[in-house]
């Protein structure tokens, strides 16, 4: 169980009342959390799922009685997209929960103090029990020089903040696996949180960014149960990530019927057909995107006509690029039996196949571009291989023009 001995006086219920959060809004929030906790058990039937997961009332009762915890939310080598995902989720999550249920005493984006006052806030936080949330990777190259806060490397900041942390959440692909910064050749030596913190469990809330409600639900789970959630082999909470996008996708019937979008402007695209042939990684990606969706369930990538890029999976940038290339290794697509062959057991092989396939394709494309200066316009966009890229006329005295001219004359 997570110790909360030094957490602040007053329960979350007291704090919500003080903050003017109505019972109705609170119950709506708890209902959303209950739905997300149930989302990871889609295959046991609705009744069984309900008996395995708490109701909104149970969550409300437990949350109301918990002491308001302190939270340190670090933003290391990242783009702030994960924090935006929470704050712009459009629901009650940010204002009423993240900012009212917890005491976010340290966060570079939201806190009022700066400079020495900000450093002191973190030092004070580190001296007490707290929940630690981390966005961003940890660059370890050049002795951590690529990301420093208050003169300390990101690694040092993380290690100090983790020492008295009662629970650690790595939020976003960067914090979980290093994401784009760790993509080959990983120039900053970027690592995920659990490659640095070895003596405590780290809950990996993956995605680029993760769905705001899933981040909040993970925090809520820790508060509600006083323990970390059950996780999968990648350290992700099972309640959210124990399901494949492909299995809940509304375009799945078109996959089974062999109806595929070939280019983003074709008849299939207009009819909402399956995006597998334009690069959808849904068959090997685990996330509740089709169920929870984004911005108050108003949309999600596949719903908007874009293939899944597999951002909740390990090293997705290396594994799944070029993003618009077809996921290889799925035999006999278009028939129901083949879908079941693409199970969890095949995912590693699929990912490895994708990496090899993707790597070879990329090398081939780069060769084409370097040899004749032409850009391959992906077929998925209705383009033609070998088409010239659009040109931009530079002013005659621009630096690029001068250096090209100089090197041209030197070569000649
Ligand atoms: S996971 Fe994606 S959204 Fe989050 S910080 Fe990294 S790049 Fe930004
Ligand atoms: S391949 Fe992608 S678009 Fe097609 S059914 Fe699967 S998840 Fe949906």
From TrEMBL:
Amino-acid positions noted as binding [4Fe-4S] cluster 2 in the UniProt annotation, renumbered to this chain: 246, 249, 274, 280
Pfam families assigned to the protein according to its UniProt record, in alphabetical order: NiFe_hyd_SSU_C, Oxidored_q6
PROSITE patterns named in the record: TAT
Binding site for [3Fe-4S] cluster: 289, 308, 311
Alphabetical list of Gene3D superfamilies matching this protein: Cytochrome-c3 hydrogenase, C-terminal domain, NADH:ubiquinone oxidoreductase-like, 20kDa subunit
Residue stretches spanning the membrane: none
Primary localization: membrane
UniProt subcellular location: Cell membrane
GO molecular function: 3 iron, 4 sulfur cluster binding; 4 iron, 4 sulfur cluster binding; electron transfer activity; ferredoxin hydrogenase activity; metal ion binding
InterPro entries assigned: Cytochrome-c3_hydrogenase_C, NADH_UbQ_OxRdtase-like_20kDa, NiFe-Hase_small_C_sf, NiFe_Hase_small_N_sf, NiFe_hydrogenase_ssu, TAT_signal, TAT_signal_bac_arc
Region described as Disordered: spans on this chain: 380-412
A GO CC term attached to the entry: plasma membrane
Bias-annotated ranges (Polar residues): 394-406
Residue ranges annotated for the Cytochrome-c3 hydrogenase C-terminal domain, each copy included: 241-324
Domain NADH:ubiquinone oxidoreductase-like 20kDa subunit as annotated: residue spans: 79-221
Keywords, comma-separated and alphabetical: 3Fe-4S, 4Fe-4S, Cell membrane, Iron, Iron-sulfur, Membrane, Metal-binding, Oxidoreductase, Signal
UniProt: [4Fe-4S] cluster 1 binding residues: 79, 82, 174, 208
Cofactor list: [4Fe-4S] cluster
Gene Ontology terms: biological process: anaerobic respiration
Protein family per UniProt: Belongs to the [NiFe]/[NiFeSe] hydrogenase small subunit family.
NCBIfam families according to UniProt: hydA, TAT_signal_seq
Assembly notes: Heterodimer of a large and a small subunit.
Name recorded for this polypeptide: Hydrogenase small subunit
